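Lab meeting notes turned into a lecture example. A postdoc, R.K., suggested we walk through two folding results consecutively so the class can see how the record format repeats. The first protein's sequence and structure tokens come next.
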Amino acid sequence: MTPIIGFAPDAEQTTPGLLSDCVNLIPAQVGMQGGPSPVVPAGVPVLPAECQGAAVVSRLDDTRRIIAGTQTKIYELVAGAWVDRTRTVGGDYTGGAESQWSITQFGDATLMANRANVIQRSTTAGFADIATAPRAEVVFSVGAFVMALNTNDGTEKPDGWHCCAAFDDTSWTPSITTQAASGRLVATAGPLRAGARLGEYAVAYKNRSIYLGQYVGAPTVWDWIQVPGGEAGCVGKNALCDLGGVHFFVGDDNFWLFDGTRPVPIGDGVLREWFLANSNPAFKYKTMAVFDRPRNLVWVFYCS
């Protein structure tokens, strides 16, 4: 019996065991298995409006919070009900229909950014503006800092980065003393699309380039280098996931892995051409990559 080796529409079609088309099949430890069906989680009501970002975050004592944001509000799931955690000063948020929340945890503080409003912060209950923080498209924690990418600090800086003061996510005013800092990544064109921690490094992605940031202390604080590797980049802030020491991300022209050295394309001869033919280039920025750790799979959701 010929074993099924999986879905590979770009490979030679006469390859034994290859699937050129399939529905509801996913890779398994041995061969393939049926994919999961959609379910409605018990005891979790629908949000009052469309979800534009959600995360399960863990505090230092390992207790968890389930946070979700809509275009105008932030909610927390508490005892089976969505509790409004929107800021009390400043009113509803002003994000647009396309705004997506970026969410990170730094110690006991949950931070959220949608680029329409300054970064939001909460430790237990409601969120509030961080007065000195910029607006940002992406936020993530790395080492003693929270990093913000694609920023506006009064001036539009789509290629800009900011970091908070060391061990203080409430302080963002640049200072050699506190090590809060900012800068721009201008060696290549375009805005910063995505970013994430990779060990003790910070990684920032444009559509066709990658920058690796290393903490070097005052006065520079973070030193950024452009990563060699052609035109590898990430199409959107949700098109990236950490597999545990390596990033998987969806680029304009391929699927990639990056471990801090060089990006490695992994779609050639498997499904690169199929994906380019079946995905809508106008909406690639909406692509989502999610790591399913128990199955050791990456799910990629995209606009056809």
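The second example is placed directly after the first for contrast:
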Amino acid sequence: MEQTKAAAAAAKSVHAIGDTLDDGTRITVDLRVSEGATTGSLTAEGVTIEILAVGKDTFMRASKDGWTKMTGEAAAGELFGGRWAKIPPNEETFESYRNLADWDFFVEDALTPDGTASKSETKQIGGVEALGLVDSGDNATLWIPVEGDRLPLHEDA
């Protein structure tokens, strides 16, 4: 796993696609993350949140229902529904979203298992022989090339 973290950190950008669990909630991720910017979306419980982060500035857009669910306030949904909003840098409610724009945090968080990582089978992904690493915490599998660059592969590649 350390070789994979080192390869990802050296890459300086990644297109992260897939599903993850956060406190039992399945989240679909489609993010392009780099050292200087992040763009993409997160979808959970039928709500999609779009994220745009450049430097220390983070912007989010969601539907009326999305803002209401995120904040617990119907007024936020009424005010921000469908609009881009700049997230204040010290607002704790949105800290996890801001962290997605921090390259070092993203690499460490995305590649640190919630439980214990164990090797599983190998298979071809996009013509590359890959080894599966299964996370006992969320039963997710990270596919790593057996040879060459150790950057994670997407199963649908």
